[in-house]
Specification:
The protein has 221 residues and is mainly α. It has helices at residues 9-65, 70-85, 102-113, 126-169, 175-205, 211-220, and strands at residues 90-91, 94-95. The longest helix has 57 residues, at 9-65. It is found in: Membrane.
């Protein structure tokens, strides 16, 4: 027999109030984040815009002297921008490698189902966008289930470590202090093997990135 417990009107009202407060707090949190990013990034964007205007003015002058019309110049820069957004670029008559190689596609689907959303590669066809939606609907729950199972498995070595600490240090420290030791040790391992070592490896692989760039990517993605 399963007892059915119905929430009282007071409990429902309390839940609604908590939900409303949570939404308001989330809104203001997003608002603060937007303000901070505007303050940090806007000045750099303005500098880039001024540099682009100077660059565009110089090229407009050179192309007009070569006999190009204003409309042709605008179309030229528009075409370059569109191709660059698609990942197609030429430099010294050498075209960049194709975006949708197997390696790039494998990286894309990995970032997709892990909800990282790195954004370096994205589908542009309707079929690709539709498949992305279906792929996420199946892949993200599958990934979350796998991570949940992994966390359950990691509880065993964590509990074993806690027992060892209690056995070795139980006569010297209180239980709350041993909990702090245990948490500190686990966080140190996490920092070392998930953030510091991968960041160092990527620094050696990606020579144009520094350590802190890799560390921030590992931390926030």
């Amino acid at each position: 027999v399963i007892d059915r417990i119905e929430a009282s009107p007071w409990q429902i009202r309390e839940t609604n109030v908590r939900l409303a407060i949570g939404l308001v707090v989330l809104f203001f949190y997003l608002l603060i984040g937007a303000i901070v990013f505007v303050q940090i990034e806007s000045s750099n964007e303005e500098n880039d815009m001024e540099a682009y205007k100077e660059f565009r003015t110089n090229w407009n002058r050179l192309l007009k002297e070569a006999g190009f019309k204003e409309t042709d110049i605008d179309q030229l820069f528009t075409d370059i921008r569109i191709m660059a957004l698609k990942g197609i670029w030429t430099e010294k008559n050498v075209t960049t490698e194709p975006i949708w190689t197997f390696g790039q596609a494998f990286f894309f689907v990995g970032a997709l189902i892990s909800t990282v959303g790195y954004g370096r590669v994205s589908p542009r066809t309707r079929e690709g966008k539709f498949f992305t939606i279906i792929y996420c609907l199946i892949g993200i729950p599958m990934t979350l289930a796998l991570l949940s199972a992994l966390v359950v498995r990691l509880k065993k070595p964590s509990a074993w470590l806690r027992c060892k600490l209690n056995a070795r240090l139980g006569h010297l420290f209180h239980d709350s202090q041993i909990q702090v030791f245990h948490l500190t040790f686990v966080c140190t391992l996490l920092l070392l093997f998930v953030f510091i070592i991968p960041s160092y490896i990527f620094t050696k692989i990606e020579t144009d990135w520094d350590f802190w760039m890799h560390f921030s990517i590992a931390l926030f993605h």
